[in-house]
Amino acid sequence: MSDNVPDNESEVPPKSHRRLYLLIILLTVVALISGAFYVESASETNSQVPYYMQGGVRQFTKEPNVERGFSLSKTNEQTQLNACLMAFTDFQASIKTQPSPLGSTDVNDQIAYIAAGVAKTRGLDFKSIPVPEFVSAEEMQKRVSSSISDEKSEDDKNTQDELVLLTLVPQSTDINSTFKKAYSSSVLGFYDPKSKKLVVLGGNKSLSTDDQFVMAHELDHAVTDSAIGQPKLKSGDPEAVGAKMSLAEGDATFEMQLYALQFFTRSQLEEIANSSNSTEVSEDSLIGAPAIIQNAISFPYSEGANFVCHLYEKGGWKAVNAAYKKPPRTTVEIMFPDRYGKSYPMPKDEFLVPKGWKKAETSTFGASDLYQLLAYPRNMPKLGLADARSRSAGWAGGFLDYWKNGNQKAIGVTIKQQPDAPDVCESIAGWAIAAYPTAENARASATYQRSNANSTFVLRCTGDKVHFVVAPSASTAYTFLDKT
Question: pTM to 2 decimals?
Fold first, then answer.
């Protein structure tokens, strides 16, 4: 592939997929279920680029040739209809044109009816049904925003530096305030397991079809908390937090669809798909936000629902309930449910820290991180790898190191290759072509080298490990990689 990747282009990231599930029911849930498994012929890495080994380091014989133009909708369109859809058979048969069984317009009657329907479809009983509090969009944003600190912690500052080095956000982006604004504006309702409060966007006179749909989602959180308990999200491991959150939000997203398929008329389903009420706030708030933030907000809902759907297809709600007792620990389990329950230890840290440099942070680097990295180089999805999601199946463990030396900053990532899965080394090289536009000659001790105006990227692939460093200079990058 040529290096003709535009340097100074900018584009508005696509609208949020935060509520992509609103369109799913009429599309037989095809768009939401994006979990087709990547299957390749047996080989160590499934590399499509010829290479040879020199001193234990892989050397490409030609430039990685990858298809560009990442699109979440395109990914979904390319996904084959899998066995998970069979879970909807009984509920799809309930789609009729008869009047809605919910005839009352009294909000209390409506809530009681929805709670009974959620309990029936979810197979759990409420100990007590929470009384929802209805708030305006302004009040909802205020409440959600108040849960996110205005002050940047050291972790926030490190995260911003890391995303800039990886070209995922522009230098000028304030990650903390951007995420806070995007997230608080996109929330349509929430259930707090501590206070047992349920807060929903909208009025309290009568529930519209869209309100009923959201209410089913929040009441699923309430009934699972009442009967099973919500997963504990406090953890120093962002991978584990993301996986557990995906279980909880995936449960509620999957359940709200089962509820709608059984209790909504066809006209109501069409109304949901075409609704602009309470959806414009979500979409408008995310326009202009970095694509990685949009993906981070939507991930637990879309990918989580796919994960829960697969558990349900295999063992019904019993299998889903069991997952709360043994929750997934990695996002690769969420994205590729056949890998649920498998362990992926963090690879050994072999980076050599040069004199004067100090490690500021070590964090997990998961399959969802790899997915977002490949999809959004320079915050431009059109430059991303078209098959970024399926390529992330190559992940089998990973971490990120962030180092500082005065005002200088560097980042290093190690990823372990999953056998018989897409080649991570090739994927990273393909991403780097767009992320760091200038090609450079790599030393014999490296696989690939590129740069942009501020940093040098060096990739080193050895055995089943993929290491790369982004540093202020090539010499510094190579020093970090000397022991890998």
Answer: 0.85
